[in-house]
Amino acid sequence: MNIIQFLYTLALVAFSITLPIDKLIGVNSVALLLLSATWLVDISWKTKWQNVKKDPFVWIWIAFFFLMLIGLLYTDKPNIAWGWNILQRILPLMAIPLILLSTQRFDDVWIHRFLLLFTIALFGAIVFALGKAFYLYTQEQNITIFYNERLAGFIRMSGIYLASFVGTAMLILSEYIYPRKSQYKNWQKVSFVLLFAFFGVIMLLLNIRMAIGALLIVYAILLIWKIGWKGLMIASVGFVIVGVVITNNTILKTKFKEAINVKEKIILRDTIDHSLDSLGRGWGGRALRVAIWDCSTDILKESWLIGVGTGDTQTELTKTYRKNNFLFAAEYNTGYNAHNQFLETWLTVGIVGLILLLLNFAYLLKKAIIHKNYLLLGFTIFIVLNCLTETYLQRQKGISLYAFMTSMLLMLERKKEENEN
Questions:
Q1: How far apart are CA 341 and CA 387, in angstroms?
Q2: How deeply is 285 buried, as exposed, middle or buried, from its count of CB atoms within 10 A (0-12, 13-18, 19+)?
Q3: What residue spans define the domains of the chain?
């Protein structure tokens, strides 16, 4: 291994480890810069071209990035700087797959090492968060410190993104507990099971409804696909167990009860602003999202073809909130995005952007189904479901995790295809 190969490997090791703890130590972006720099001089450009020229996944994200760049051309001048900020933020969606899939340097052993490094680092970060929570609990005697945003805040992450990291780690561990179990010693298998259980408890403590629901749906699909009716029975038992835990925990039950409370509704387009009825208590996530999606469709009626521009989405949403007398979002809680990745993309760069986003997921699902790659299938479905209620690929944490995981899993697929041929 020469110095360039060593630095390239070191950069990817650092990126894998710091992905869950970047907000604590702030070196994940440095690792990505080192990875990019070594990529520029690693292997020939001809080899890189041969590796990516027939890879649809890389080209989808290249096309998406340049579409967002074109979106700057019709962004209002005051929002150009914000548009550039968005472009900088989404750059890893194109850069990470391009770098990793064009070099294809690592075999499956190394790829699984990177996945395990990410999982172990996440475990360490959460243990650190729990340690701080226990310490503060001795001072405050407030049990809510172990839940949701308060727990996630100890490692400077939002509960939504930490829950997606935890769900991803559980899916990775599932791969080692069952499909690849013959490759590990007994003590390693026990460790994987214990880690899986630990992350399961953390997922419940974070109390992110979509993440919990998405993970249950993913495991139901995987179990049914793998073992048929037995899988359905196991999945049903899993749903019952989680349901019992939630209904017997006041904090968890309150959050989930709000999700099914269809009576809570924000009335829009009235002479009275009903959204302010809740000042002092806050609206539930379901009611807010329904109102936001309603306002988003107003914008799409006029801008469905090319969108409003890369930097203008938030401005147009805020205008629509105000127009529809939704001041809770327009004045008192500014910055509410579309809370749906598909809507956000469509609003920003139009129908072509939405098609590219859908093609990206469709390609991964097709690849996973054809090759029976359970981890790729599970991860893709998990992220798709999270994208239904969050603009998941607009934040650095979601972008980095998605680009890292998909690139790793697609590299594994390539290795399988090479071995088969």
A1: 5
A2: middle
A3: 1-42, 56-105+263-421
Q: What b-and-e string marks burial along 70-90, b requiring 16 or more CB atoms within 10 Å of the CB?
A: ebbeebeeebbebbeebbeeb
223-257: burial string, b at 16+ Cβ within 10 Å, e else: bbeeeeeebeebbeeeeeebeeebeebeebeebbe
**C-alpha dihedral (396, 251, 255, 145), degrees to nearest 10:** -20
DSSP assignment string, 164-201 = HHHHHHHHHHHHHHTTTGGGS-HHHHHHHHHHHHHHHH
175-178: list long-range contacts, CB under 8 Å, 24+ apart.
175/374, 175/375, 176/116
Structure-token pair, residue 149:
């945003």
Provide the residue type at 125 as one letter.
Answer: A
Q: Is the pTM of this model over 0.85?
A: yes
Q: Within the chain, how many helices (H) and strands (E) appear? A: 19, 0
Residue 110's alpha-carbon distances to 105, 136, 158, in angstroms, are: 9, 39, 30
Q: What is the pLDDT of residues 216-237, one digit of tens each?
A: 999 999 999 888 888 889 888 9
Please tell me the distance from the alpha carbon of residue 154 to that of residue 131, in angstroms, as a whole number. 9
In 3-state terms, what secondary structure has residue 265?
A: coil
Token representation of residue 333: 């809680």
Q: How many CB atoms lie within 10 A of CB 135?
A: 12
Q: What is the pLDDT of residues 287-313, one digit of tens each?
A: 888 999 999 999 999 999 999 999 999
Residue 401 has which token pair? Answer: 């995790």
